[in-house]
């Protein structure tokens, strides 16, 4: 049997918040490419890993932890694809004001994943798209991909707390990321960079 070629598309914030809701901060220090490998079957071969995220703003400690994590991923050969993270005003039911209250929102990741998915479908030779997300905003992209590339498959791998039955009958398969996948995908606590400096797992992620 010839190998089934897979390209992965990872919704970084969907994965992060799934881990957060599970109380799994100890698994944030994750090599996302290793996670993809741990999700594959023996006959599948991972050809590329696309990791989509946004740089957070407004919290220096969180910004530093994210910067350390993204630098670690780059040392692993993964180049993040960035959207935007911003704080939008919203009207509070009680105060009826849009001036004080703000809610943080990550923007453009679902569009970026959809765009890359369709570009790769046209330009790259592979068999299966592995999408790590439970975001229903990706449903139109998955439908379009299946319509235009009928020979290719789509596998949805849902992060913890992100399983979504809306993908049933749309994706070819739906898998669930469980604790053993996360545990087996951790990076070394300390990573030595090519310039000799070191990156260390944040203490709150231990």
Helix content: 25-40%
Identify the overall geometry: globular
- Give the termini separation: 41 Å
Q: Please, how many helices?
A: 6
Total domain count: 1
Name of the CATH superfamily: 5'-nuclease
Helix-strand string: EHHEHEEEHEHEEHEE
What is the CATH fold-level name?
Rossmann fold
Query: Can you identify the CATH class?
Result: Alpha Beta
Mean pLDDT: 91
Number of strands: 10
Rg, rounded, reads 18 Å
Overview of the molecule:
There is one protein chain. The model is unreliable at 99-104 (pLDDT under 50). The chain has one domain (4-205): Rossmann fold (3-Layer(aba) Sandwich). Helix 5 (139-148) links the parallel strand 6 (128-132) and strand 7. The radius of gyration is 18 Å and the shape is globular. The longest helix has 16 residues, at 60-75. The chain has helices at 12-22, 32-39, 60-75, 109-123, 139-148, 179-183, and strands spanning 4-11, 44-53, 81-82, 84-89, 102-107, 128-132, 153-158, 173-176, 190-192, 198-200. With 206 residues, the chain is an alpha/beta fold. Helix 4 (109-123) runs parallel beside helix 5.
Structure described in brief:
With 206 residues, the chain is α/β, with parallel strands linked by helices. The protein has six helices and ten strands, in the order βααβαβββαβαββαββ.
List the helices and strands and how they pair.
Blueprint: E1 4-11, H1 12-22, H2 32-39, E2 44-53, H3 60-75, E3 81-82, E4 84-89, E5 102-107, H4 109-123, E6 128-132, H5 139-148, E7 153-158, E8 173-176, H6 179-183, E9 190-192, E10 198-200
Parallel strand pairs: 1-2, 1-6, 2-3, 6-7, 7-8
Antiparallel strand pairs: 4-5, 9-10
């Amino acid at each position: 049997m010839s190998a089934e070629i897979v390209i992965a598309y990872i919704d970084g914030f969907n994965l992060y918040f799934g881990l957060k809701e599970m109380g799994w901060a100890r698994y944030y220090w994750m090599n996302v490419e290793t996670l993809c490998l741990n999700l594959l079957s023996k006959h599948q071969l991972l050809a590329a890993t696309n990791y989509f995220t946004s740089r957070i703003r407004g919290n220096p400690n969180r910004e530093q932890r994210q910067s350390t994590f993204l630098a670690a991923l780059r040392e692993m050969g993964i180049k993040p694809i960035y959207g935007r993270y911003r704080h939008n005003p919203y009207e509070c039911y009680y105060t009826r004001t849009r001036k004080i209250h703000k809610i943080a929102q990550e923007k453009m990741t679902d569009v970026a994943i959809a765009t890359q998915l369709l570009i790769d479908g046209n330009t790259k030779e592979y068999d299966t798209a592995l999408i790590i997300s439970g975001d229903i905003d990706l449903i139109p992209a998955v439908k379009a991909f299946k319509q235009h590339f009928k020979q290719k498959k789509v596998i949805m791998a849902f992060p913890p707390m992100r399983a979504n039955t809306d993908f049933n009958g749309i994706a070819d398969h739906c898998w669930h990321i469980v604790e053993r996948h996360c545990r087996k995908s951790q990076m070394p606590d300390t990573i030595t960079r090519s310039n000799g400096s070191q990156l260390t797992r944040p203490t709150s992620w231990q």
